[in-house]
Amino acid sequence: MKSIELLNHFRRVGKWVNWERTFDQFLYGEPETEVKGIAVSWMPTLTNLKKALKEGCNVFITHEALFAAKIDDEGNIIESPIIKDRHARWVTGKRKLDADDIWIRKMEWLEQNNLVVLRCHDFWDNYPDIGVHGAWATWLGFKKTPLKVIPFYELHEIEEVTLERLSKNILDRIKPLGQDSIQVIGDLDKKVTKIAIATGAASNYRDMYELGGEVLLLTDDGTFFWESGQWSMDTGIPLIIVNHSLSEEPGMRTLAQYLEKEFPEIPVFQIPVGCIFQSLY
Prior knowledge:
- By secondary structure, this protein is an alpha/beta fold.
- It has two domains: 121 residues, NIF3 (NGG1p interacting factor 3)-like (Udp-n-acetylmuramoylalanyl-d-glutamate--2,6- Diaminopimelate Ligase, Chain: A, domain 1, 3-Layer(aba) Sandwich); 116 residues, NIF3 (NGG1p interacting factor 3)-like (Udp-n-acetylmuramoylalanyl-d-glutamate--2,6- Diaminopimelate Ligase, Chain: A, domain 1), CATH 3.40.1390.30.
- 35% of the residues lie in helices and 20% in strands.
- The protein contains ten helices and 13 strands.
- A six-stranded mixed beta sheet has the order 7-8-10-11-12-9. A five-stranded mixed beta sheet has the order 1-6-3-2-13, sandwiched between helices.
- Strand 11, helix 9 and strand 12 form a beta-alpha-beta unit.
């Protein structure tokens, strides 16, 4: 099987994706490469790329961007048919990179090791039930059918519970993924019966409130406290905040399982990321 068959599968199944504008594409490598093994992970850090190679995987399916770039002799990022990561220019802006920059060294490592990097973001974010937000809801223990589901968001009915108890329940669920503390804004004694959840950077508090959330479960990359925190305190609508990576880790596990089922002849290796920070006390 060739790498391009993976992307063709996503294109064939993912009717909800705008394939003319998607980020789901090859970020590095030759699409005609014969697949020996598939690594799945939330982000292709250099450490994770090396783990994939060690496990015999020559295709790395990532949810997030590669954050690598090609530069000219003056350190400017240049367009290249080799790397198509649209985030590279956005992240660096007009900043020039020197030859020893970690992203340049990552690019050189890829050139030396011929690892194929394929992004699977838009396809899996909204895959029904087992995609990123569906897997997140399941991990949190929300077993009933959601009251509402729209791209990136779900609204769930829960038994009446205080904000403090709900937050502690969620903390118990996420500790195995590596996050040992949780951020909460609001009256801990407030009782709620509906929670709106989101994953990744797509956690707009106003959209979630309009969905019907009495408490909103956001991610740290999806909100700004100076804005959403003020809104929460003004409206009395509580916010619970978890790590971006952690909220999508259950979805990376289901993606690996999905690929194992769809391509049983190819070994699949999932590289956990979980929460990317540690809390010190």
